[in-house]
Specification:
Layout lengths: L14 H11 L2 E7 L9 E7 L15 E4 L4 H8 L2 E7 L4 H5 L11 E10 L2 H14 L13 E13 L6 E3 L1 H6 L3
């Protein structure tokens, strides 16, 4: 039960650890907002974003999902009106589920749903966010400067873990941040 990036998958009874593990091993997630766009206003709108909680490896994860955003992006425009969002990450993007022949929808192919809000980070935290994101997504450094990119984080308020049969498990942010992946 090892991932290529290293580290054993936590057992299902360790939901907080599983949430940290899955986030740390994922490079992207589906971010859902409430649309502020004409014709879609108030409807759910999901979009893919590159994320990182720290450099790859067993000791790099902070648990904080960082993002690199621009106001030109449609979902960011939604967030300017209402910063509330949900973020879903899944081991389906790793080799783990394919290796075990788990369908992405199978509970055995663990996925985590975070609810909270997106907030710009301050200058000191931007240094951490930049290291976290650019270590996994080096192409970001070459993106057009005139797009006014900024670093943000997903401020977690609720966490749901689906990693086994029997339904979702609820993990508090306090439980989540108190464990290592």
């Amino acid at each position: 039960l090892l991932l290529a990036a290293g580290g054993a998958i936590p057992p299902p009874e360790e939901a907080a650890r599983m949430a940290r593990f899955v986030l740390h091993h994922c490079d992207w997630g589906a971010l859902a907002t409430l649309s502020a766009q004409e014709g879609l206003r108030g409807h759910p709108f999901a979009n893919i974003f590159s994320i990182s909680d720290g450099p790859p490896g067993p000791f790099g994860g902070s648990g904080v999902p960082y993002l690199y955003l621009t106001d030109m992006e449609i979902s960011v425009q939604d967030l300017e009106i209402n910063s509330n969002a949900s973020l879903t990450v899944s081991l389906a993007q790793t080799s783990y589920c394919k290796k075990h022949k788990y369908d992405p929808q199978s509970p055995l192919c663990a996925h985590i749903i975070f609810c909270g809000s997106i907030v710009k980070v301050n200058d000191s935290e931007a240094v951490l966010a930049k290291k976290a994101l650019f270590s996994r997504h080096p192409e970001m450094e070459t993106w057009p400067k005139d797009h006014n990119w900024f670093f943000a984080k997903f401020n977690i308020t609720n966490i749901w873990v689906l990693d086994y049969f029997g339904g979702l498990k609820i993990v508090t942010p306090e439980e989540y941040y108190s464990v290592k992946p």
